[in-house]
Amino acid sequence: MTNGGVDRSVECTGSINAMIAAYECVHDGWGVAVLVGVPNKDDAFKTHPVNVLNERTLKGTFFGNYKPRSDLPLVVEKYMNKELELEKFVTHEVPFSEINKAFEIMLRGDGLRCVIRMEA
C-alpha cells in the first residue's frame, strides 16, 4: 500500500504494540518514527535487529520541543483567557493523602491526567 513503508509515523497512545508497529511501518533508509506515548513501566520495545540495520530512525519525546521557562507563561495566559480547555484532559482527581492512588492510575495506564489536590 505504501511501496515499502511510510516516510513518518507518530505514536501517541503509549501502547507498546502501537510503538513497535509505528517503528516497523516506516520506510527503510529514510523513515522516521516518533514515539510520544508513555508505555507501561514493564513494557519492552522489541523488534528485529534488521529494522535498525536498514537505517530506520526512531525518536522519542516526553514534551516535544516544549520549553517550560518560555512556553509555560503563554500556556497560563491562554488558559486564563479561556483559549485553552485543560479540564477536558483531567480524568482523575485525588487528594494529596492519596497520591499513591494517582501513581497506580498512571502505571496502569487508566488515566489521561490526574490532578493531585493539596489539602488545606
UniProtKB/TrEMBL annotation:
- Where is each Alcohol dehydrogenase-like C-terminal domain found? 1-76
- Fetch the Pfam families from UniProt: ADH_zinc_N
Q: Which GO MF terms are attached to this record?
A: S-(hydroxymethyl)glutathione dehydrogenase [NAD(P)+] activity; zinc ion binding
State if S-adenosyl-L-methionine is listed as a keyword: no
Which terms under GO biological process does the entry name? formaldehyde catabolic process
Origin superkingdom: Eukaryota
The entry's cellular-component GO terms read: cytosol
Give the matching SUPFAM superfamilies: GroES-like (SSF50129), NAD(P)-binding Rossmann-fold domains (SSF51735)
Q: InterPro entries, alphabetically?
A: ADH-like_C, GroES-like_sf, NAD(P)-bd_dom_sf
Subunit details for this protein? Homodimer.
User: How is this protein named in the record?
Assistant: Alcohol dehydrogenase superfamily, zinc-type
Organism whose genome encodes this protein: Corchorus capsularis
